[in-house]
């Protein structure tokens, strides 16, 4: 048995699907690729597979590093690996880049086979349910009839919930972290402001900026800065930055003076260098549209009645984007549907980003739950 540590050097894989995928928006993808990574070994019974779903800016690269790239650590490496809470000595873990993404799966930067050019603005709207259906086809390709668990945080948690509803016989445990059954009005508002930052960038060109050889960098920077504020808590920002000045005095100009300004500008600059603007627009709209109760007249209990899985939910006290009350809403509704539910409400000052951190009580709860999943 491997000692606790990283899964080591990993390589992404690509699965091509030639069967068209009908989308909830009415669009159709005639064919598509899904880029994914796996960690651990699928057992003979094919009963130990866990799907990890990523959040807005995440990808298939959940754990490990890439050869020759020491700073390429996976976004949830602190959770996934030998001896870690999601133990790859026991589980076969799969991470997938969602459709519409910009990390290898078919998305706006991919070539549209009909035109021979990048999809750009013509890429169809995709939803959480579309992602789940595409992931189900990947599971078929891997020979996985049912997941031991489907796990995700934030938008990834919404995918985990959607899995239990869309394919209830293919998920034994749904693990929904720092998520909600649908976005609040405030969350939709933040997403719209971020989208407007991109849509009104002069370099956006209606989404076909690639044809003009440009990137709507200013819009992407602003969108990320807005989003990043919502991922942190007031306490965590105060603790990290306070009112610290970069130069120790007021300069009386509109440049960067406070450390928090410097941090947000840095995050915006970094994001604009690797993320696609059309993917950002598509993904935030998928967040907005997600609402299992919509087709049930707003009745969440009726919507969740389809689920057969056991559930683990976790929330964080200072997460004001997906506050504990939203997780408790899910817990209450699942319990009233007779589901087996475990719930952890973690005291953390890091805000929404807490689900990505190595918080001891959080990881202890995750470890205990995974330890009790039979494979």
Protein described:
The protein is α/β, with parallel strands linked by helices. Pathway: Amino-acid biosynthesis; L-methionine biosynthesis via de novo pathway; O-succinyl-L-homoserine from L-homoserine: step 1/1. Transfers a succinyl group from succinyl-CoA to L-homoserine, forming succinyl-L-homoserine. Belongs to the AB hydrolase superfamily. MetX family. Its main location: cytoplasm.
Largest sheet: 8 strands, mixed
Strand content: 15-25%
Q: How many helices does DSSP assign?
A: 10
C-alpha termini separation: 17 Å
Topology:
Layout: E1 13-17, E2 21-22, E3 28-29, E4 32-39, E5 49-53, E6 80-81, E7 86-87, E8 92-96, E9 111-112, E10 117-118, H1 128-142, E11 149-153, H2 155-166, E12 173-177, H3 185-199, H4 217-231, H5 234-240, H6 259-274, H7 277-289, H8 300-304, E13 310-316, H9 324-336, E14 341-346, H10 360-371
Parallel strand pairs: 5-8, 5-11, 6-7, 11-12, 12-13, 13-14
Antiparallel strand pairs: 1-4, 2-3, 4-8, 9-10
Site (Important for acyl-CoA specificity): 321
Catalytic activity: L-homoserine + succinyl-CoA = O-succinyl-L-homoserine + CoA
Family: Belongs to the AB hydrolase superfamily. MetX family.
């Amino acid at each position: 048995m491997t000692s606790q540590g990283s899964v080591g050097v990993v390589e992404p894989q690509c699965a091509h699907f030639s069967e068209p995928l009908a989308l909830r928006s009415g669009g159709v993808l005639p064919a598509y690729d899904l880029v994914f990574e796996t960690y651990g070994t699928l057992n003979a019974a094919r009963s130990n597979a866990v799907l990890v779903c990523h959040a807005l800016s995440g990808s298939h690269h959940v754990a490990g590093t890439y050869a020759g790239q020491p700073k390429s650590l996976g976004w949830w490496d602190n959770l996934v690996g030998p001896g870690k809470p999601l133990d790859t000595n026991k589980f076969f873990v799969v991470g997938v880049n969602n459709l519409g993404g910009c990390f290898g799966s078919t998305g706006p930067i991919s070539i549209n086979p009909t035109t021979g050019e990048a999809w750009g603005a013509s890429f169809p709207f995709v939803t959480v349910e579309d992602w789940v259906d595409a992931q189900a086809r990947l599971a078929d390709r891997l020979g996985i009839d049912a997941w031991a668990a489907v796990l995700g945080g934030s938008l990834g948690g919404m995918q985990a919930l959607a899995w239990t509803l869309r394919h209830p016989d293919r998920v034994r445990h749904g693990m929904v972290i720092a998520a909600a059954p649908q976005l609040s009005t405030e969350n939709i508002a933040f997403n719209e402001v971020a989208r407007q930052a991109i849509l009104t960038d002069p370099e956006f060109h209606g989404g076909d900026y690639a044809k003009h050889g440009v990137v709507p960098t200013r819009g992407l920077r602003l969108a990320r800065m807005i989003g990043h504020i919502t991922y942190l808590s007031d306490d965590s920002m105060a603790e990290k930055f306070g009112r610290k000045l970069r130069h120790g005095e007021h300069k009386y100009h509109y440049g960067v003076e406070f450390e928090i300004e410097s941090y947000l500008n840095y995050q915006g600059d970094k994001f604009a260098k690797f993320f696609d603007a059309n993917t950002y627009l598509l993904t935030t709209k998928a967040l907005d549209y997600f609402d299992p109760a919509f087709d049930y007249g707003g009745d969440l209990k009726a919507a969740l009645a389809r689920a057969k899985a056991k559930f683990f939910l976790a929330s964080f006290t200072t997460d004001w984007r997906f506050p504990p009350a939203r997780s408790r809403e899910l817990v209450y509704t699942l319990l009233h549907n007779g589901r087996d539910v475990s719930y952890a409400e973690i005291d953390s000052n890091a805000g929404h980003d807490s689900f990505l951190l190595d918080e001891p009580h959080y990881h202890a709860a995750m470890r205990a739950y995974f330890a009790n999943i039979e494979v």
